[in-house]
Automatic annotation (TrEMBL):
GO BP of this protein: ammonium homeostasis
Lineage of the species this protein comes from: Bacteria, Candidatus Moduliflexota, Candidatus Moduliflexia, Candidatus Moduliflexales, Candidatus Moduliflexaceae
Gene3D superfamilies: Ammonium transporter AmtB like domains
Principal location: membrane
TM segment ranges: 39-59, 71-94, 141-159, 166-189, 201-222, 243-260, 272-300, 307-326, 332-349, 361-380, 400-426
UniProt name for this protein: Ammonium transporter
């Protein structure tokens, strides 16, 4: 009973916070709706924020003990960077009224004119693209901020164990302040992809593939970790040092995804869409866990825990775009495919000598892309009230699938090219990679002057 009491107290506190907004409108029904929607949006945003813990636990656990402090520091500071850069410029670029490519009004410091929670035709302000939700401006801002922070966190895993701390900070600011908002404007800000008819409900492409493409560019310029590949070209396994934190982190992420996807309704409504999205999200994750376990067992000979964990994340990433547009049965199929894809994608990147210590490319880039395509394949028009049109497998032909392919290509080419440019400038000015000696000794001591497990002598996996 105690936990329910705490939850009710939180709800009451958020309603009190929302009361100045509610007082502007004397209609008690309208007041209640705005209050409930605001509580819902903020509560789910808090769940997504909590995912920072999950990413930190998964990434640090899958890497070596000598780099734990560095990885935790990156995962901790990245949300601070995202908070400032998204406030300074990112929000305006993404949601400001502008053209088909980026926002132009209310560009700096989210300072544009705004009369939220007014909606639709009643809205008068600089951020019309997000006037479909009837919550205060700062509720909209915070919910979108936690998504922006997730994109930068993905990059951290791809470039782990050899990136300079300062170089990662600078790139994260550029990613969240400029690159992420521009492609986000294309899809969620009323830009050219939205007008083309592309759909991405909660960010398989806008969030996850963007983080994946940016990370891929960084990994290519960094090169693999020392001794990752043998002279004959085969990959040398570098095992994570703490699978307990990996498992803990994955469960935190799974839990946080119930904010990520259902929260993207940004309103309560009658609750049916929220319930549907929660079930499709969970079903895809569960199916992907089973398919990744079976695939790893058949291909690798053992049910590798890292593959099982990444299978769950792959299913969650893949269902993020179509979660509101597909049936529960389709979400199961999407999850099964995602679980198989992630195992083979990990092996594929290793064959290309693209060193990704935590499998983030296989999870976020490959399955973020698949999630966008899944909309074009499995969507059923109006299943939760959104007129997407039917996907290919439900008689819709190639119209929706074509728009989704355009989104994959547009987001991918822009993010990868601009990331290569940004990483190259950073590399030329301040360098990207730590020294060979520092990498061998560990980034914890070299970059931060401390150890994660002080007082313990560790002999393995150094």
């Amino acid at each position: 009973m105690r936990k329910y009491g705490i939850f009710l107290l939180c709800v009451m506190l958020m309603l009190i916070i929302a009361s100045p907004v509610l007082a502007q409108d004397q209609d008690p029904i309208a007041n209640l709706k705005v209050g409930l929607d605001t509580v819902w949006v903020l509560f789910t945003a808090f769940l997504v924020f909590f995912m920072n813990l999950g990413f930190g636990m998964v990434e640090s656990g899958l890497c070596r003990v000598k780099n734990t402090v560095n990885i935790l520091a990156k995962n901790f500071i990245v949300f601070a960077i995202a908070s400032i850069s998204f406030w300074v410029i990112g929000w305006g670029l993404m949601f400001g009224n502008g053209n088909d490519f980026f926002g132009l009004q209310g560009l700096l410091f989210a300072s544009g004119a705004d009369n939220s929670p007014a909606m639709g035709d009643a809205y008068q302000g600089a951020y019309s693209a997000i006037s479909w939700t009837g919550v205060p401006l700062w509720a909209k801002f915070f919910f979108q901020l936690v998504f922006a922070g997730t994109a930068a966190t993905i990059v951290s895993g791809v470039v782990a164990e050899r990136i300079k701390f300062l170089s990662f900070i600078v790139f994260s600011f550029i990613l969240v302040g400029i690159m992420y908002p521009i492609t986000g404007h294309w899809v969620w800000g009323g830009g050219w992809l939205a007008k083309l008819g592309m759909w991405d409900f909660a960010g398989s492409g806008v969030v996850h593939s963007v983080g994946g493409w940016a990370g891929l560019a960084g990994a290519l310029l960094l090169g693999p970790r020392i001794d990752k590949y043998r002279k004959d070209g085969s990959a040398r396994p570098i095992f994570g040092h703490n699978m307990s934190t990996v498992t803990l982190g994955a469960l935190v992420l799974w839990f946080g995804w119930f904010g990520f996807n259902p929260g993207s309704t940004m309103g309560v409504g009658d609750g049916s869409a929220i319930a549907h999205i929660a079930v499709t999200t969970n079903t895809a994750a569960a199916a992907a866990i089973l398919s990744s376990t079976i695939t790893a067992w058949l291909v690798l000979g053992k049910p590798d825990l890292s593959m099982i964990v990444n299978g769950s994340l792959a299913g969650l990433v893949a269902i993020t775009a179509p979660c509101a547009f597909v049936s529960v049965g389709s979400s199961f199929i999407i999850g099964v495919i995602a679980g198989v894809l992630v195992v083979f994608a990990v092996l594929f990147f290793d064959k290309l000598h693209i060193d990704d210590p935590v499998g983030a490319l296989a999870v976020h880039l490959v399955n973020g892309t698949f999630g966008l395509l899944a909309v074009g394949l499995f969507a059923q028009d109006g299943i939760t009230g959104t007129a997407t049109g039917n996907g290919l497998f439900f008689g819709g032909g190639f119209k929706l699938l074509g728009a989704q392919i355009a989104g994959v290509l547009g987001i991918g080419v822009f993010t990868f090219v601009v990331s290569i440019i940004a990483w190259s400038i950073i590399k030329a000015i301040m360098g990207m990679r730590v020294s060979r000696e520092e990498e061998i000794r560990g980034l914890d001591l070299g970059e931060h002057g401390m150890e994660a497990y002080a007082g313990f002598q560790v002999f393995l996996n150094q």
